[in-house]
What does this fold into?
Amino acid sequence: MQQREEKQLEASVDSLISLVAHVKNALQNFIYKLENEYERLTWPSVLDNFGLLSGQLNTINKMLKNEKTPSFRSQVIIPLLLSQKPDDDLTVLTEQRVPVFSHEIVPDYLRTKPDPEVEEQEKQLSTEATRIGPDVAQKQIQALNKMCSNLLEKLNNPREDRDAESAASRLNKPFFNPGDTNALVAAVAFGKGLSKCRPPGPMAPGHPGQGPMMSGGPTLQQVTIGGGPGQQGGMGGPVAPQQQGQPGYNFTYAHHHHLSLFHWL
Amino acid sequence: MEAPPVTVMPITSGTINMMEYLLQGSVLDSALESLLHRLRGLCDNMEPETFTDHELVFLLKGQQGNPFILRARRSLSHPTAPWHLRYLGQPEVGDKSRHALVRNCVDVAASHSLPDFLNEMGFRMDHEFVTSGHIFRKGAMKVVVCNVSRVLVPGNTENTERMSLSHLVELSVLAPAGQDTVSEDMRSFAEQLKPLIHLEKIDPSKQRH
It folds into this structure.
């Protein structure tokens, strides 16, 4: 009798170990993906990973509920030897996670009860549950079930019904007006619809007043880098004083490119 | 013979021939918020930039037929930033299967005396308008959602009126000539914005009449 129980226990512990190893691998892959490939990660693949994990947890639950599994609650684990020295075998066995079987790991790894705060909360929840009475509880359960089934129905129903009504509402509200498109493009491309401006007569080229000429002096000199002398006449317009703060850079850059433009003319 | 002195040699431009690939559409003001939300999700994760620009279009009429057009643009939200001068060529009449409008594009920065300089050169301002809106970026693609307003009094950018109740949406890429994968990428991005807006290749010359 006892041998059979021992064998059952061993078998169930082995299968539990393998299932937990599956979960651990899935988690490892998922974390790797999240850390290294997050730029390419899509929401559906994240959901796939979560689905995989939940499936594996379900398997573990089923295995634990299986009648062939002895009740683990009746088993007790007692640490026989605690030492402060690192244990190489243990380190290898646990993949570097538990190097020392010492006093600080025992409360975490050999825990059988939840934290005191968590226990408090659980007690509160169970007293709350018994307090409200079976009828009210039943009504709440029914309401929850109804809402879930409504949602499932909406999600599972054929898409055509939904598409028809949303398409109809979309047709009523057009988002763009092709006439407006053409008008805007024409306006931006060649000024159709914008008032045309024709300033009276060309301004006399190369005719600076004495005043602007003085303020334009330093900048005109900077412009002579690599340009033909004939270009200077064109720059006779009044130069805004702020340009002197940014000396030749804007002018020479623009000048160089204006010269490149002259290839087009 | 000695080589001529450096100052006499002509300066050849060192710029690469850049082409602008363009798709345009529009969205009604009522649907603007949904479009901005969708673009915020689709495009690179950054705060969408808003801008207010004043664009002046200058024409140079030569003896031959088509006038030469230059577009000068300045930012009304950053008044001290340099002006931006742009030349856009004729749209390339390549194969019809190319999904975007392709034209040659030359961009330079210019100082604040640009309008006077262009006037002295002989250009005349043909029209001007004010645009303001948002810019989104996705990789090399740039999406601009803006409203276009006409300037009622020439030179006075405070007094503007909206041209229509729609915002103009432009998807553009600046790329060197000869890259045809660009228009494929633009088309697949435009697909993601349907049916909210239809971005398509609109030939400006067809809109003239």
About this structure: DSSP finds eleven helices and no strands in chain A. Residues 2-36 of chain A form the longest helix (35 residues). Chain A touches chain B through 54 residues (CB under 8 Å).
